[in-house]
Structure formats: structure tokens, C-alpha cells
């Protein structure tokens, strides 16, 4: 027995039983002693079993409920493709330039100025493109209220009629102008611009300003007011090779003309019949081809063919592009026209959809300590609209999902090129099963404590 105040527990009882065992070891032959010893043995065994069950039950409960590390997610960015570089057609003429409005986000800042150019940029003869400047100067002095406004009536006299013969012998383009012919300013401008009638350019400019000297003075003032310092006009028709301009100035002239309602409508007209002048065919044979909407041709003979043009180009972007271009000093009208069409088509084809991902494309893995695995995949096909070989940037955003089941969305992949962005979901392919009870019971070193889980 233990002394008063001394702790009593199972081990003390066991020691006491062993002491009694030794005390009565000499009485092994006594039946009563043997019965007492059997009872004590049973008690000891029972205590041991209870202790063993308690320890085992505690381990099992802990093993089956202890937290385990979450699955390890390894994501890798998919390879970013590169679009095919655009091969823009270039001119073999003496000089050319092109401006693209509405595409700075694709082509870079400044595309709406001069996006590309060939030649030295020095002034060159502009031939009948001069008549476009003549029309702008006339309408600056005698405006039309709208594209449909006929404006004042012009009556041509004998001196105007004599211009027909004067320009005929010079080999210039002309249109009938019988003495006494009357037409609106709008119609007279149409005769000057559509078939490029030089006699109408001379007669109309003299009539509006009173003389050629006054017209030229007004033209110089108009050019200066618009900053067109690279342009020289010595007469209103373009028959003189001293009428010159630079590609950059002509792009500016083209934009002014395209912004003028009356001029824009006239130069976009393939043909028209005007009383007194007859049936008129536009010298710009490209109207309606490759999106071309204007503006003016020029020709002083072999090697001097020129074209100032505008086009509306649908490339698949949100809005069509506004193209303004000029070619100076081409070998022939046919070569100029063919190269302009090829140039526009090469710009159009340079805009394209670039595939960046396909549905089911693997971009990562999910694994667990207990051997269950799955993969991360792109959830849908994706492509991005861009220009040429514009670099495509990629970002990934992968979250920890609440469950690891097949089809669960775990994040996104985003591609950006120029102004456009496309995003595709990232999902789980396969299912991560929880660890089995047997794995938990046999891998205690890979189980954490409640404290670890909370931390």
C-alpha cells in the first residue's frame, strides 16, 4: 500500500502486485495462492489491453483526420506564336508615300502621317493633280454649301471657247465648251476633275478670280496657309512640268480634298453626263477597285504617270482603314495602277488572326503526395487579331480551386497584341481523389497536425 499523500496510478498498482507476487512466491503449491495470482494476471492483462486500445484509437483518429498538403500545381506558360510578317508591295516609281488613318494602334504612332514612303521626298512634277489644288483654291474663294449645292451659274464666252483649241494643240485633255454655254460651278468643277479638262481649269480659275495672275496669287496664299511649302503651282492645269510637289504635301492635299463634300463626291464619280460638255469618263480607272474612292490622275508622258488616291480598306478590324496614297513618276498608268492595287492588297493581307492556343492544350500538372494526378489545360481555342508580326504578350492567372474535379476552372491565360486582347480559361483535366484511409494510416510522416494546418 502507498503512504498517505503519495500518488496512486496504474504503475504503482502494478509494482504493488509484483511485491505481493514475491512475498508469496514460496506458496506456489497453495491453490488459493494460484487463484490470486491468476486474478492478478488477468487484471494486468486487462490494463495493458485498455492502454493499447487507447493509444491505437488515438492514432487512428488522428491519422484519419490530420491535414495533408494540398496538391502541387505546376503551370507553364504556353509558347507564344509569332504572326507572319507582312510583305507590303513597294513602288518602282520615282516617289511614293502612303498614310493610314485608324491604324495607329496596329501600325504605330505616326501611321496617319506618312506611314511608308519611297524616293527622296523632293518636289516632282504633278501634272493634272494640279487641278485638285485648283478646285480647292476656287472653292475657298467661292464655297459650296453642301455636296449637292450647284453654286453660282457660269456662262462661258468666246474667249473661253478659244481655250479648247489652245489646249488641243498642246495635247492636253479638253472637253467641249461652246460659246454661251452655261452651267453651275459644281458641274464646271466636275468637267475639270472627272475627265481632267484643262480648258475648264483655265476658264474657271480666270472667271472666279478675274485673271490668271489673281488666281496664282490666291493659290500661293492658300498653299502657305496650309503649310504646303514643298508645292509650286505656275498655272491651273498641270500641263507645265514646273507645277511640282512633294509626296508629303500631296498626302495633305489629298486629305483636304477628301474632306470637302463636293470634291469628294465629284472625284468618286466614274462617269457623268453634263449638258454642254457631254458624256464624261473619269480618268481614274481604279475607282471601286480595292476600295479606292478617288482622287486624281496625272500624266505628262512616258515616265511621268502619277496618281493621288484615297481608299477605304476593310481589313477585319472594328472599323475600316482610311488610306491616302500618292505615286509620282511611274513608267505607265498600267504599272502605277497595278502596283497600287498590289500595295493595298498586301496591307489588307497583313492583318490576320493568329492562333495562340487550342482547346485541351496542356499547360501544367497537378500532383499529390498520395499519387493522384491531373493536368491543367486550355479550355477553348483562342486566336488574336493583329498586324503582321506584332509581338504577342502573354499573362497567366492561376488560382487555388476549392475542388480539384474534372472541368473545374482554375484561372485564365490572356494574350495581348496591339489594341486587342483575348482570354481563354484554364481548367482541370482529370480528378484529384482524396487520400485513402490506408494511405493515411501508413504514411504518418506525411501528415500534419492541426496546428500545422492552422498555421
Task: Characterize the structure shown.
The protein is 35% helix and 24% strand. It is α+β, with helices and mostly antiparallel strands and 455 residues long. It has 3 domains: 10-65, no CATH class; 72-79 and 355-454, Peptidoglycan synthesis regulatory factor (PBP3), Domain 2 (Sandwich), CATH 2.60.410; 95-330, DD-peptidase/beta-lactamase superfamily (Beta-lactamase). The strands form 6 sheets. It has a 6-stranded antiparallel sheet with strand order 1-14-15-19-18-17, with no helix packed on it. A 5-stranded antiparallel sheet has the order 3-2-12-11-10, sandwiched between helices. A two-stranded antiparallel sheet has the order 4-7. A hairpin with a 2-residue loop joins β18 (409-417) and β19. It is rod-shaped, with a radius of gyration of 46 Å. Mean pLDDT is 88; it is low at 1-12 and 450-455.
**If strands are numbered along the chain, what order do they take across the biggest sheet?**
1-14-15-19-18-17
Please state the CA-atom Rg, rounded to the nearest Å. Answer: 46 Å
- The CATH architecture assignment of the largest domain turns out to be 3-Layer(aba) Sandwich
The fold-level CATH name of the largest domain is Beta-lactamase
- At the fourth level of CATH, the homologous superfamily of the largest domain is DD-peptidase/beta-lactamase superfamily
- Give the beta-strand count: 19
Low-pLDDT windows of residues: 1-12, 450-455
Largest sheet composition:
6 strands, antiparallel
Count of helical regions: 13
- Class computed from helices, strands and strand pairing: alpha+beta
Principal-axes geometry comes out as: rod-shaped
Mean pLDDT: 88
CATH class of the largest domain: Alpha Beta
Cα distance spanning the termini: 48 Å
How much of the polypeptide forms β-strand, as a percent range?
Answer: 15-25%
Helix content: 25-40%
Tally of individual domains: 3
